[in-house]
Amino acid sequence: MSDDPLDRNLHQMAQSARLDVERGIDETSVEAALSETIGDGRLNVRLTPYQTGRPSVHRWMTIAAAASVVALVVGVAYVLIGRDDQISSETPPSSQPAAPVATTAPVATTPPMATTAPAPASTLPAATSVPTTTPPTSTTNATTTTMSLDDVAVITSIDQLPFEGYLPDAGCLEDDCAQIAYDSRGAAWTFRNGVLTDHVRGGAVVPLPEPWSSVDIRDIGLIAIGPDDVAYFWVYQASESAALIGISVADGDVGQQVVLLEDAVDFSGDTDYVPTPAGLAEVGCCGADQIRPAPDAELLVSWLDRAGENPPIPDVTFDVGTVALSREGLSWTFAVDPQRLLARGMPRVTSTHDGGVIGVLTGLDSGTDDTANYIVRGWPDGSTSVAALSFQLFVRAVSPEGFVVMVSDGRFVVADLFSDRPPADMEDRTIDVATGTVTLDAGWPAGFDAPEERLARANAIAGPVQLGERRTVDALDTDALVVVVISEGFFDDSVFGQRLTIDFTNETIGWAQTCQPGRGQQDYRTDLCV
Amino acid sequence: MTAVASYEALFREWYPRLVSLGTAMTGRRDVASDIAQEAFLRAHRDWATVGSYERPSAWVRKVAVNLLVDYQRVNARERLAIDRLAGAPMVESSRPALTRWVELTSTLPSRQRQIVTLFYGDDLAVADIAVLLDISEGAVKASLFKARAALHQLLESEVRDV
Fold it and tell me: Complex ipTM, two decimals?
């Protein structure tokens, strides 16, 4: 406080006012208020590693797996989102343990999976799809289909892929690749050199606070962008443990450290940390857990937003025994011998905006020239598609739009491996310029009950981010019943920006655009640019 | 310290402070008590996470301030009507220092009132207030400057009137 007499006076008045109130709060009233908040006196406390100091090595118990199966049979749909947004693009030096999100060498000796011959370079390899044919299996109300991996052509060149877009300035500089993650709204974030970059909301950057900003890139890894608007990282500490830090990416306190859990991340194996509806859950490298994350998976952190609420995200699980992905009552089974897949930890899996799933299943002997990673896609109608990528085409992430992200020429490229099906975010739509409205040809999608889901859906309706595009996705109300998506900076000599106003209550989409200088209106209207 | 004990210790230390802060901001002890309790309820519900933070008190205070700001935003019209009818905010008359502060700051826009209360009453730095209110430091400084000028003028006019 300064020595200014006015400041001193105001300080004294304000302090006196507060003391006035505090003097009126006696011990009895505090205890009464305390008992009201505690209720029956039981705290909602879970025993998590950070509460016990040193994390225990998580080893899954047979009884937990059995409980998982029972729970599944009785229709308890359990959920989680996969590791799509957990990418460690750097392989730590051999003197260090593998990062918990990195895929490691196989442990089994099963022969490599047989694959069909690579498709000719000039031919766009078509993913294989099958209609819904098989009856539901274990999950109540689930639609289950099967898809064989045996007859899928392996894509060997990135030139064979249909690009959907780029993430500018975010790929690799020599061997130094940025790490990439998608948040629950479907926005892509990259991390490199102590800086997070948001590639949807205008390319904003979030420098990490000290000392984390100067940590060697090999000693820090982006785990996930939580639905609580916190970016979670592991930071190498010792041979078998790492700290977990959480950095806010929310407007207002962006860049602030909000979580620090010493020795919380288990480096003793290939433990994964997976975003689930409840929080960041731990998935052990191995063991008896058939459903991953297990229903009783330990939470490293719970999601809490600024208002103390738990923001929901879709639920996705992977059944390692049946090679099935599940999401909220739907399941998609891929008819492959699980012994032929690398079954450690949690595969990269994410929910897609259209109500389906996409994931990456790693074949055994991953890393050799003739093996592939399998991109599996579950569609909302229950059908499935599969594409196979040569290991050299390392998938950095799968996106909620249903795309895969890889690196080419130092840039992240976004590719649609299932171009024989409408992408999740690009369903056919008709723009009526006269009325300034957009119609989704397939009709208005069902669901999307939560604000986060509506924001993600609005972002998806706008399509994948194009080269140079700056996009904002803003809710006009706290429930996100009306969401405005503005995309600007297109490489287009006529149109400068597009605005979609998506009304989830009335199921309408308003459309307007603004033009490049000299090519039409400079504000948003329904007139076409010239 | 157990989780239960740590929560209760936090509550006993910070509940009165949050109530006094809220009362100084709103002039309403009942509202401030409700909001402080709500903030602690949310902390209690997720104590496994909140209790692990370096400063759980900061989390609780942030939630409480967010709720106070929401309250003032939602109740702006109601408050104006009450002020018009009653001529002054609802303040406990038995607390002269509180009454004095609330009367003085009631002339300020709600954002400025929040900021001067946090700055002078809670001894928070500009940067901390910016984080708490989700606004830039520049916005805090600007509001503080305007509030000081207004309060200075008000205090001087009171002296002249006397």
Answer: 0.86
Give the max Cα distance, chain B.
Answer: 57
Joined together, the tokens standing for residue B90 give 């609802």
Sign of CA dihedral A15, A20, A26, A30: negative
Give the span between the Cα atoms of B48 and B43, in whole angstroms. Answer: 9
**A454: amino acid identity, one letter:** R
With CB atoms and an 8 Å threshold, state whether A261 touches B52.
yes
Provide the edge-to-edge strand list for the sheet that holds A195-198: A179-182, A188-192, A195-198, A205-207
Give me the pLDDT at residue A451, please: 80
Element (H, E) at B149: helix B137-161
The answer to whether B48 contacts A307, with C-beta atoms less than 8 Å apart, is no
SS3 of B89-143: CCCCCCCHHHHHHHHHHCCCCHHHHHHHHHHHHCCCCHHHHHHHHCCCHHHHHHH
A474: contact with B, CB 8 A cutoff = no
Beta bridge pairs of residue A301? A280
- Report the b/e string of B3-19 with b at 16+ CB within 10 A: bbeebbebbeebbbbbb
Chain centroid to Cα A480, Å, comes to 20
Look over chain A and give the mean of its residue pLDDT values, rounded to a whole number.
Answer: 69
Average pLDDT (B118-142) is 86
**Euclidean distance between the first and the last CA atom of chain A, given in angstroms as a whole number:** 59
Whole-structure pTM value: 0.50
Res B59 pLDDT > 60: yes
Distance in angstroms (rounded) separating the CA atoms of residues A470 and A190: 15
Would you state the structure tokens that stand for residue A372, as one six-digit string? 């592939």
Contact B117 A16 (CB under 8 A): no
CB atoms B48 and A44 under 8 Å: yes
Q: Which residues of B touch A41 (CB under 8 A)?
A: 4
Residue holding tokens 């249903």?
A402
pLDDT of residue B162: 56
pLDDT of A384:
86
Pairing of strands A384-390, A154-155: parallel
B75 or A344, which is more confident = A344
Average pLDDT over residues B66-70: 81
pLDDT of residue A39: 58
Mean pLDDT for all residues in chain B: 80
Average pLDDT over residues B118-147: 87
pLDDT of residue A174: 57
Q: Specify the range with the lowest mean pLDDT, choosing from A89-103, A272-286, B101-115.
A: A89-103
Distance between CA atoms of residues A438 and B31, nearest Å = 45
- Please, what sign has the CA dihedral across residues A298, A301, A303, A304? positive
Spell A485-519 as b/e; 16+ CB within 10 A means b.
Answer: bbbbebeeeebbbbbbbbebeeeebbbbbbbbeeb
Burial of A402 (0-12, 13-18, 19+ CB in 10 A): buried
Write down the residue that tokens 């009201």 correspond to.
A36
Instruction: Name which of B20, B102, B120 is nearest A10 (Cβ-Cβ).
Output: B120
Residues in B closer than 8 angstroms to A50, CB to CB, are: 52
Give the model confidence (pLDDT) of A390-415 as tens digits: 877 778 889 887 888 887 777 778 88
